[in-house]
């Protein structure tokens, strides 16, 4: 019987009778080892090849094999070209992003100046930066605007904060007319508590944390109090008070 050379899809050559369509090739289910994950009927024996690791697959004549090789090569080259193009695009985006990256780092440094922990804005900016970097995504105009808004808001706050000052000496008993600007009510182990943010006529900020609901929002009164501490919150100098008494 006349025999011809035939290839399996992995390129192994078999000498087979003319007219043969299939030749053995590595079982794609088990990868040729003959075993597969356990099941009750076959145990660990691969049912794709009955454990032989080989099964009949499409055979290629010399001519078909050469054509297949050519097709595979073209496919490979196309994939390579695509990945090269993608890498070039990524580089381009990274280059275009660089000034914004730098600006974000600058603003984060500005925001972290004297801060003990990162604020919401800092986390937002660092998130934006790492996302743009890992995903190689260009910054949107909206993002760029947000960076500048955060920076200018911070500077404004800082400027306003620089104008504020602490009042009195720690431990000093004082009397002043205060207006309640903000009321926060909460509960702790000890029961209800309030945090009042108050202001005097010169715009100085006072904070009272305690159990006495001294004033309602926008209400004013002359109050006697003791200066407990001087703190700074978001650039604003706050005079913390205790033992308040409404006159
Ligand atoms: Zn198999």
Relevant terms:
247 residues; alpha+beta; OB fold (Dihydrolipoamide Acetyltransferase, E2P); 3 domains; five-stranded mixed barrel; two-stranded antiparallel ribbon; 3 helices; 11 strands; binds zinc ion
Task: Report on the architecture of this protein.
By secondary structure, the chain is α+β, with helices and mostly antiparallel strands. It has three domains: 3-60, no CATH class; 88-162; 173-246, OB fold (Dihydrolipoamide Acetyltransferase, E2P), CATH 2.40.50. Helices cover 36% and strands 34% of the residues. The chain contains three helices and eleven strands. The termini are far apart. The mean pLDDT is 93.
Our count of domains comes out at: 3
Structural class: alpha+beta
Arrangement of strands in the largest sheet: 7-8-9-11-10
- In N-to-C order, the SSE pattern is EEEEEEHHHEEEEE
- Enumerate how many helices there are, as a single number: 3
Radius of gyration: 38 Å
Helix content: 25-40%
Mean pLDDT: 93
Biggest beta sheet attributes:
5 strands, mixed, barrel
Global morphology: elongated
Can I get a quick summary?
This protein is α+β, with helices and mostly antiparallel strands. It has helices spanning 62-112, 120-135, 141-163; strands spanning 3-7, 13-17, 22-26, 35-39, 43-45, 54-58, 173-188, 191-199, 205-210, 220-233, 236-246.
Topology (elements, then pairings):
Elements: E1 3-7, E2 13-17, E3 22-26, E4 35-39, E5 43-45, E6 54-58, H1 62-112, H2 120-135, H3 141-163, E7 173-188, E8 191-199, E9 205-210, E10 220-233, E11 236-246
Parallel strand pairs: 9-11
Antiparallel strand pairs: 1-2, 3-6, 4-5, 7-8, 7-10, 8-9, 10-11
Helix pairs in contact: 1-2, 1-3
The structure holds zinc ion (ZN).
């Amino acid at each position: 019987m006349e025999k011809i050379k035939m290839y399996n899809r992995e390129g192994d050559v078999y000498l087979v009778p003319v007219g043969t369509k299939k030749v053995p090739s590595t079982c794609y289910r088990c990868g040729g080892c003959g075993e597969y994950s356990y099941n009750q009927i076959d145990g660990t024996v691969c049912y794709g090849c009955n454990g032989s690791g080989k099964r009949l697959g499409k055979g290629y004549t010399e001519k078909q094999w050469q054509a297949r090789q050519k097709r595979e090569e073209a496919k490979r080259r196309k994939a390579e070209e695509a990945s090269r193009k993608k890498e070039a695009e990524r580089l381009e985006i990274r280059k275009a992003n660089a000034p914004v990256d730098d600006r974000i780092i600058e603003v984060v440094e500005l925001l972290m100046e004297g801060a003990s922990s990162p604020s919401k804005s800092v986390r937002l900016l660092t998130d934006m930066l790492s996302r743009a970097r890992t995903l190689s995504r260009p910054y949107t105009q909206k993002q760029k605007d947000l960076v500048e808004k955060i920076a200018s808001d911070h500077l404004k706050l800082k400027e306003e904060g620089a104008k504020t000052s602490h009042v009195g000496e720690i431990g000093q008993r004082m009397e002043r007319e205060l207006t309640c600007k903000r009321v926060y009510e909460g509960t702790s182990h000890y029961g209800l508590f309030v945090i009042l943010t108050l202001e005097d006529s010169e715009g100085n900020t006072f904070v009272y944390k305690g159990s006495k609901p001294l004033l309602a929002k926008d209400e004013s009164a002359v109050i006697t109090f003791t200066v407990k501490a001087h703190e700074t919150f978001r650039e604003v100098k706050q005079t913390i008070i205790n033992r308040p008494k409404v006159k």
